[in-house]
Amino acid sequence: MAQMTLEVSKLLEQALSLSIEEQEALADSLISTLGGKVDNGLRAAWEAEIGKRIAELDSGKSETTSWAEVRRRNLAKLPHAH
């Protein structure tokens, strides 16, 4: 996995300030530009993992975290320019 540079961290911080709909559109655009770089085995593994996580949520085995809390934690991890 590529290392997150300061420039990418700043872009991520800006992206996280967008509305959910804008974030979804951005993510879709970024993923679509990967073209053939998305491995089918990896895609299948992600689909299996997503199915497992949905089942855990539906059964009550997993707990959720609010978007506000997730966003706060992730922003706290970003390097800050001084």
Task: Give keywords.
82 residues, mainly alpha, 4 helices, globular
Find the structural class using helix and strand composition.
mainly alpha
How much is the radius of gyration in Å?
16 Å
Helicity, as a percent range:
55-70%
What is the end-to-end distance?
Answer: 26 Å
The major pleated sheet works out as: none
C-alpha geometry: globular
H/E element string?
A: HHHH
Mean pLDDT: 84
Q: Determine the number of helices (DSSP H or I, runs of at least 4 residues).
A: 4
Proportion of residues in β-strands: under 5%
Number of domains: 1
Number of strands: 0
Uncertain residue ranges = none
Explained architecture:
The protein has 82 residues and is mainly α. 67% of the residues lie in helices and 0% in strands. The chain is globular.
Blueprint of the fold:
Elements: H1 6-16, H2 20-32, H3 40-59, H4 67-77
Summed up:
This protein has 82 residues and is mostly helical. The chain has four helices and no strands.
